[in-house]
Amino acid sequence: MDFVTLGSSNLRISRIGLGMLSVGVNADRPWTLDDESSAPLVRTAIEGGINFFDTADSYNHGQSERLTGRLLRRFARRDEVVIATKVGLDSPASNDANLSAAHIGRAIDGSLRRLGTDYVDLYQLHRFDPHTPLVETIGALNELVNLGKVRWIGASSMHADQFERLMDAAELVGARFVSMQGHYNLIYREEERRMIPLCAGRDVGYTAWSPLARGVLAGNRTDGAVRTTRAETDTFPDGRYEHPSDRAVIDRLANVAARRGVSSARIALAWLAHHAAVAAPIIGATRADHVTDAIESLHVELSADERSWLEAPYVRHRLHGHH
User: Which of 32, 102, 155, 195 could disulfide-link to 125, CB 3.0 to 4.6 Å?
Assistant: First the structure.
């Protein structure tokens, strides 16, 4: 396994991260996993060298954090893993919700309790909160770092100008964001417009969620056929992955994979691994072989011609995944 330092932090993360959205039973998501089914994912990840595990307080009503904590204690020492979680996705009608200081204070204590740890390595703002003053949010995060509950702070899925405002506000009080987790894959590359260059220029590590486009790039929804429980039940609420150019990219991906004798998923992840600005894709998995395939993608060397050929059909998309 290869490792990289995340932005300006001292966190050494594996070049593949394991997203924990599938971990913890949620009746609204039939593809989520219980304790017994989740264990092989985490064991395979740990044995394969993955040390970076990403969850959120909103994942499966807190069950993801609970099960993530239990499984990591079962298979690894605390100092061997990097635990990342998030706050502030939901926006209930309350004066102390979202990214207010009061909400952040309660949320971190809940996350630590569910995870069974006294600190998280990376605490990320799940979305931008336009209703709370930046100084209030930054002050609350900085206090968590000073208290030792959080080692480093990051953010996820917002517009580049919003993230830039957050970073500027943080610097005024001596805090700093070390990571951005964005929506990025072969058929959704809008982060190349502003966010990825912004992160590269500010020494912020960039991690990619949905690197396989929720299974589309793995061939789970090819030609109208669905091949997994998630593909059957996980709909796209905003029309993403339905752009006319997507089909051409997917076909080229399948062509390269066939010539290489590997899965389409492995080629899609290898394309990300060749991107110097991407510290790590954060994969979703429901089977241990999904994890193994992701790890093996790091050993696929794509040529410059192959990468250019995969990228050529892409045209600009409507922005998704920022709300």
Answer: 155
